[in-house]
């Protein structure tokens, strides 16, 4: 299956389809600092998925983190990733979108708390699918039954008593 362009904000089923079709993800704004959300998401993806992961951070370029080399830019990657997951300021998103368009990745994913309608419009006009204000880790766990591991209520009704 290939990743098709979705010209609107993807629905839950469409996001699930994007994640199922993807084999590689680049994390732009990855931080080697274990207290940062990008590190937490990268750790989850590295341990609990089969995605080929690429970390982008010019300040940490060349370092080995979580068994992967950190790259300075998207242009340095050995392949075009299926999804570019972005952990940058909203004001930085237009420049990131320009890089993603130049690279040819089909999906740009703005992490939880990140929206930029101008950048999203530019990406969509170039044929990219855009996900805004969604955590890729949470969405992946949601679609793979793992939200309970992160402390979220999965809505599953069970006869088992919870530990007190």
What would you say this structure looks like, in words?
This is CoA-binding protein. Residues 18-114 form the CoA-binding domain. Pfam families: CoA_binding_2. By secondary structure, the chain is of the alpha/beta class. The protein has one domain (25-144): 3-Layer(aba) Sandwich (Rossmann fold). Helices cover 30% and strands 16% of the residues. The protein is built from five helices and seven strands. The N and C termini lie far apart (45 Å). The model has no long low-confidence stretch (mean pLDDT 89).
What's the layout of helices and strands?
Layout: H1 12-21, E1 24-28, H2 37-48, E2 52-56, E3 64-65, E4 68-71, E5 83-86, H3 93-103, E6 107-110, H4 117-125, E7 129-131, H5 136-143
Parallel strand pairs: 1-2, 1-5, 2-4, 5-6, 6-7
Antiparallel strand pairs: 3-4
Protein name: CoA-binding protein
Pfam families: CoA_binding_2 (PF13380)
InterPro entries: CoA-bd (IPR003781), NAD(P)-bd_dom_sf (IPR036291)
Counted beta strands: 7
Instruction: Report the top-level CATH class.
Output: Alpha Beta
Number of structural domains:
1
Which topology does CATH recognise? Rossmann fold
CATH homologous superfamily grouping: NAD(P)-binding Rossmann-like Domain
The shape, in one word, is: globular
Architecture (CATH level 2) name: 3-Layer(aba) Sandwich
- Helicity, as a percent range: 25-40%
| Amino- and carboxy-terminal Cα gap | 45 Å
Radius of gyration: 16 Å
The percent range for strand residues is 15-25%
Structural class designation? alpha/beta
The sequence of SSEs as H and E is HEHEEEEHEHEH
| Total DSSP helices | 5
Largest sheet: 7 strands, mixed
Integer average pLDDT: 89
**Low confidence ranges:** none
Pfam family, one: CoA_binding_2
Organism: Nocardioides luteus
InterPro entries: CoA-bd (IPR003781), NAD(P)-bd_dom_sf (IPR036291)
Domain CoA-binding: 18-114
